[in-house]
Automatic annotation (TrEMBL):
Name of the molecule in the record: ethanolamine-phosphate cytidylyltransferase
Segments forming domain Cytidyltransferase-like: 11-131, 198-290
SUPFAM superfamilies: Nucleotidylyl transferase (SSF52374)
GO biological process: phosphatidylethanolamine biosynthetic process
Stored CDD domains: CCT, ECT
Gene Ontology CC terms, in alphabetical order: cytoplasm
Family to which the UniProt record says this protein belongs: Belongs to the cytidylyltransferase family.
Pathway the protein acts in: Phospholipid metabolism; phosphatidylethanolamine biosynthesis; phosphatidylethanolamine from ethanolamine: step 2/3; Lipid metabolism
Species lineage: Eukaryota, Metazoa, Chordata, Craniata, Vertebrata
InterPro entries, sorted: CCT (IPR041723), Cyt_trans-like (IPR004821), Ect1/PCYT2 (IPR044608), Rossmann-like_a/b/a_fold (IPR014729)
GO molecular function, one term: ethanolamine-phosphate cytidylyltransferase activity
EC number(s) stated in the UniProt entry for this protein: 2.7.7.14
Length: 371
């Protein structure tokens, strides 16, 4: 039996750093965090078809470092019975409205019992926003490199809020050093640790990345895994289209939230060279089964670790790529759009009802004051 609390996180389309941030906040409210993850059937009933299977979502949530335990197939409506069953003092949810298919607040019962707490939503990211950014990818003009929009694609790093790249939808996320500190482990490598370096885009952090990082983590008895993240411009150079979907700031938090990662290099050089290997005292460099794109000068970015005999190719057994995810979402596009319109209409109705109630209370109060 664990002291602690229960937090239900609705991991429908994907698990992103906004959800991780809610889990981080929830963990800070108690000492043991249990997360309920819904089945595909349950999500389809209330939200529309999920992009990821329940198995993928269970694994994603387990990989977030603030989670102590997950409940598979958690009910959509959180009841006191559920909290008691898993020995939880209270449940936590984001400060957005959650309604069942028939428009009821899914947290009504626990709120009445005083066993509900709220954490803040992360500004600038939502599943809907990310899906929107992916849907932009279907626009043909991205394949036209001479397009002036494309020429504007300079890095999102260090730009003002108006200067986002023309296709990351509108990422309103503002990175602060405080947020990085909250996500970072803050642990330095200890004597006897094996320092493992991996590099990439890690865009739309997903189950393929989790499986790869878990395999990397298993390469040593005491692994210290450093992830080098390439700047947006670099990612676009080798990935093309309108990649990356998430900018460098968002990708930093996504990777830091993973329990297999100790440290992140923000804006790592594309070639894994002598300076980097010496600076971090790297013992092993790993890369997945995906294609290694040559550097700008056509050289192999892994030439140095190969020369030192510390390069290893890892087969994670999962060949899911960011491209595959974008494809899944685009195929689901019409269902998503229908779902989002329905969700918006439902939320607008709630807001309208709340406004009406407020106006009514106000006019009643005014009438009483007049007496």
């Amino acid at each position: 039996m664990h002291p602690g609390f229960h937090c239900y996180m609705r991991t429908y389309d994907m698990v992103h750093y906004g959800h991780s941030n809610q889990l981080r906040q929830a963990k800070g409210m108690g000492d043991y965090l249990t997360v309920g993850v819904h089945t595909d059937a349950e999500i389809a009933k209330h939200k529309g078809p999920p992009v990821f299977t329940q198995e993928e979502r269970y694994k994603m949530v387990r990989a977030i470092k603030w989670v102590d335990e997950i409940v598979e197939g958690a009910p959509y409506v959180t009841t006191l019975e559920t909290l008691d069953k898993y020995n939880c003092d209270f449940c936590v949810h984001g400060d957005d409205i959650t309604l069942t298919v028939d428009g009821k607040d899914t947290y009504e019962e626990v709120k009445r019992a005083g066993r509900y707490r709220e954490c803040k939503r992360t500004q600038g990211v939502s599943t809907t926003d990310l899906v929107g950014r992916m849907l932009l990818m279907t626009k043909a003009h991205h394949s036209n490199l001479d397009n002036p929009d494309y020429q504007q694609h300079t890095d999102n790093f260090g730009k003002g809020p108006k200067g986002h790249s023309p296709w990351t939808g509108v990422s309103q996320f503002l990175q602060t050093s405080q947020k990085i500190i909250q996500f970072a482990s803050g642990k330095e490598p200890q004597p006897g640790d094996t320092i493992i370096y991996v590099a990439g885009a890690f865009d739309l952090f997903h189950i393929g990345h989790v499986d790869f990082l878990e395999m990397v983590y298993k390469q040593a008895e005491r692994p210290y895994v450093i992830v080098g993240l390439h700047f947006d411009q670099e990612v676009n150079r080798y990935k093309g289209k309108n990649y990356p979907i998430m900018n460098i700031h968002e990708r930093t938090l996504s990777v830091l939230a993973c329990r297999y990662v100790s440290e992140v290099v923000i804006g790592a050089p594309y070639a894994v060279g002598k300076d980097l290997l010496d600076h971090f005292r790297v013992d092993l460099v790993c890369h997945g089964k995906t294609e290694v794109f040559p550097d700008k000068d056509k050289s192999d970015p892994y030439a140095e670790p190969k020369k030192r005999g510390i390069f290893r190719t890892i087969d994670s057994g999962n060949n899911l790529t960011t491209d595959d995810i974008v494809q899944r979402i685009i195929e689901n596009r019409l269902q998503f759009e229908a779902r989002n319109q329905k969700k918006e209409a439902k939320e607008m109705a709630v807001i309208e009802a709340m406004k009406r109630k407020e106006q009514q209370e106000q006019s009643e109060a005014e009438a009483q004051a007049a007496h």
